[in-house]
Design brief:
The protein has 380 residues and is mainly α. It has a domain of 72 residues. Helices cover 61% and strands 0% of the residues. Helix 16 packs across helix 18. The protein is globular, with a radius of gyration of 25 Å.
Length: 380
């Protein structure tokens, strides 16, 4: 750490990095607009999906998605196959059944529609097939099948598939068929391909590879460059990790003012760790004017999301009346939540607190905790 924090009654919990690879959206979106070579009825079907007119979408897509036999005429384009059905229409039907849009949600039926489109070479459908096989949706979990479908799409240049394939290789596979150890070199290769296409999650994951040295020597300068590319696409995870590097002086001289700005960007997108770390910057006046009220508010926002370090910190703030009216029952409640979620330091802090509480306050703490749990930590 470039700076140590002053002690408090209960030391505030500091800074957790996002250190695991993440994915983008599991299912590709609908068409962004008219595309060359798309049948008008298919385009109309996707436009109906976008405006949530599911009856019209199904009426437009299902007839074209359904194979009609070899007498329909010659193949007219990449998305069309006269004897196999229109692949793009099949993708749309798969999305409807996957999401339960205008039909009963049915992963088995969705998987079948995606398979029809995937076998015709549609990359988006292949990504979806990889996702469903990996997660056991409509089928048993099977890493071998997941990798096969992801790779088909990735080799067509689909960045979503490249990221998903990278994550599987990064973490290794242990479910279903084909358990295997991680392959960090392969993971880096696929992240790199996605990142170079401007895929924000690919850029973030590649940044983590260089930041934490996954299968390669750590290189903070390269990590910062890829995080920055994702920051420019407003990816909150990248804003947070780059904020931590900037605060701690990794790869460049520490700059708490710039770190606060990065934490703020991520915190405003509801990134819990960024909210918690931004709170600490306010509480200790690092890179920003000291403001206990703002520090309390950002800690509360993170704690209400179930973020364990913020729960512990919120207990500390209530115990000392920092930025909020002092309340030992509320302090006890939040420390208890942190303890339940594995924050072992909260155990000693809570014992010390209990020694200073009256029996009535301990009873109140229990009542508050029951009510707050029922509200899933919101508005407590």
């Amino acid at each position: 750490m470039s700076r140590s924090l002053p002690s408090r009654l209960f030391p505030l919990v500091l800074f957790l990095l996002v250190a695991l690879p993440v994915r983008g959206e599991p299912l590709p979106g609908v068409l962004p607009g008219v595309q060359q070579g798309v049948q008008p009825e298919v385009q109309q079907g996707f436009e109906a999906l976008q405006r949530k007119d599911f009856a019209t979408a199904r009426a437009k897509l299902e007839p074209l998605a359904t194979p009609q036999g070899p007498d329909r005429g010659p193949d007219q384009g990449t998305n069309q196959s006269t004897d196999k059905g229109d692949a793009l229409a099949q993708l749309g039907m798969g999305q409807m059944y996957f999401n339960g849009d205008g039909v009963a949600q049915d992963y088995v039926v969705a998987l079948d529609w995606f398979r029809r489109a995937g076998e015709q070479g549609h990359a988006g459908a292949q990504v979806n097939l990889g996702f469903m096989h990996e997660n056991g949706l409509g089928t048993i979990p099977d890493n071998v099948e997941a990798i096969r479908w992801y790779k088909l799409a990735a080799e067509q240049g689909d960045p979503e598939a490249q990221v998903s394939l990278g994550v599987i290789y990064h973490q290794g596979g242990g479910r279903g068929g084909g358990a295997f150890d991680s392959n960090l070199e392969a993971a880096r290769k696929w992240y790199q391909l996605a990142a170079e296409q401007g895929h924000a999650t690919g850029q973030f994951n590649l940044g983590m590879v260089y930041h934490f040295g996954y299968g390669i020597a750590p290189d903070p300068a390269v990590a910062r460059r890829w995080y920055q590319a994702a920051v420019e696409q407003n990816l909150s995870r990248a804003q947070y990790n780059l904020g931590v590097m900037t605060r701690d002086g990794e790869g460049e001289e520490a700059d708490p003012v710039a770190a606060v700005k990065l934490f703020q960007l991520a915190a405003e997108q509801n990134h819990a760790a960024a909210q918690s770390d931004l709170a600490l910057m306010y509480l200790y006046g690092l890179g920003v004017e000291k403001d206990d009220v703002a520090g309390f508010d950002w800690t509360r926002r993170a704690a209400e999301q179930g973020y364990t370090p913020a729960m512990s910190n919120l207990g500390s703030l209530y115990s000392t009346g920092t930025g909020v009216k002092k309340s030992l029952p509320l302090a006890h409640m939040w420390l208890s939540f942190a303890l339940r979620q594995g924050e072992q330091k909260a155990w000693g802090y809570r014992l010390g607190l209990e020694a200073a509480m009256t029996p009535e306050e301990r009873t109140e703490a229990k009542t508050l905790a029951e009510a707050c749990s029922a509200r899933e930590f919101k508005g407590c």
